[in-house]
Amino acid sequence: MSSSSLKVACLGAGYFSQFHFESWRRMDEVTLVGVCDTDRARAEANGAPAFVDMTTLLDATTPDIVDIIVPPPFHAEAIRTALRAGVKWIICQKPFCTDLREAQTIVHEIASTQSTLIVHENFRFQPWYRRIQKAIGDGVIGTPLQATFRLRPGDGQGDDAYLARQPYFQKMPRFLVHETAVHWVDTFRFLFGDPTAVYADLRRINPVIAGEDAGHILFDHPNGLRAVFDGNRHLDHAATNPRKTMGEALIEGTLGTLELTGTGEVRLRRFGSLEGESILGPDTSAGFGGDCVHHLQSHVVSAILDGNAPENTAAAYLPVMQIVEAIYASAERGQKIHLTQSLTEAGAT
Q: How far is 89 from 31, CA to CA, in rounded Å?
């Protein structure tokens, strides 16, 4: 290990951790110094020193970065354990903590330390959303007025839904929004700014799932833009890998329309034209979601080494969680919820 390498220790060796480990191993600036999981065999399967206790992991490895890759009920204690060990950079998987109140408490606690906490919200790092953001910023579609994302991963049917990959999905009392649509709450903010109101109609289709697994969410964004998240985990879309983009999107403006396909391609059709042009070709990366895990983790390493301001700090992520709470409140009450207070102020209350 180079003396200048950043030492990374990971907590959790479940299904999704494979993408984290693979990314860390690709970075010349990083050394994976340990993996902790309550199942020692799972921890040992990753080639790094294996541990079954997080405190022992931290004492033995003194990492620069702790990467927390466990379900939300374990986030708060894992973060506190890392803070007690003096870890300066902590990355925590989403959904962040169990609810907004717990997340606010953690953000308050970390504010009195010298540590930085990043939420591993990686969809905004998918190359197609980066390209869409640039196109909007360059004005190629004029003023955006409509945006739609249709979530269609096709993985939610039957008694065995999610059991092979992430079985805890079946037991989550809040599922579609808290676990999945949260990606687009953050992505829509990244592309369009904070919403001013939300309206949601949620439902459960598969009876073996504890929470909702389909629904529509309408977002009012600044400058007259309306965005729709249309989610149904039972249905699929045209893609050889439905989990690459998880669905399809349209962003429509006064001068043109951007289309995201199931291949990760972004196409531009100018207003009044019958034909479109590709402005980002189909994705060929082997990593999850256009290699978004690697893009996010590389972003964090760059922030550490080059002093760049990181995206997705926990404090900056609190408004996402506030919006999620408003979505559930809308569905329960059957009415639009206006986000009248500044999201940043409300999230930090």
A: 15
Residue 325 domain-assigned (yes or no): no
- Is 324 within a domain? no
In whole angstroms, give the CA distance from residue 216 to residue 151. Answer: 10
The rounded distance, in Å, linking the Cα atoms of 255 and 129 is 19
Please state, in angstroms and rounded to a whole number, the distance separating the CA atoms of residues 63 and 208: 40
> SS3 for 227?
strand
Question: Are residues 310 and 304 in contact, defined by beta-carbon separation less than 8 angstroms?
Answer: no
Mark whether 98 and 153 lie in a shared domain: no
Using alpha carbons only, give the angle 10, 185, 173 rounded to the nearest 5 degrees.
Answer: 70
Check the CA dihedral 128-134-137-138 and report its sign. Answer: negative
- Domain total for the chain? 2
The answer as to whether 203 is a domain residue is: yes
For residue 31, what are the β-bridge partners? 7
Task: Determine which helix (DSSP H) or strand (DSSP E) holds 259, and give its type and residue range.
Answer: strand 256-260
Are 265 and 305 members of one domain?
Answer: no
> Does the predicted TM-score (pTM) go above 0.85?
yes
Residue 347 lies in a domain: no
pLDDT single digits (tens) 38-86 = 999 999 998 899 999 999 999 999 999 999 999 899 999 999 999 999 9
C-alpha 219: how far from its chain's center?
Answer: 18
Tokens 């690459």 belong to: 244
Q: Report the distance separating Cα 115 and Cα 101, nearest Å.
A: 20
Write the pLDDT tens digit of every residue in 107-156: 999 999 999 999 999 999 999 999 999 999 999 999 999 999 999 999 99
Condensed to tens digits (0 to 9), the pLDDT of residues 268-282 reads 999 999 999 999 999
**Residue showing tokens 């408004």:** 319
Together in a domain, 267 and 133: yes
Same domain, 198 and 220: yes
Helix (H, G, I), strand (E, B) or coil at 297: helix
Cβ 296 vs Cβ 120: under 8 Å: yes
Phi, psi of 334 (to 5 degrees): 70, 35
Domain holding 24, by residue range, is 6-120+295-313
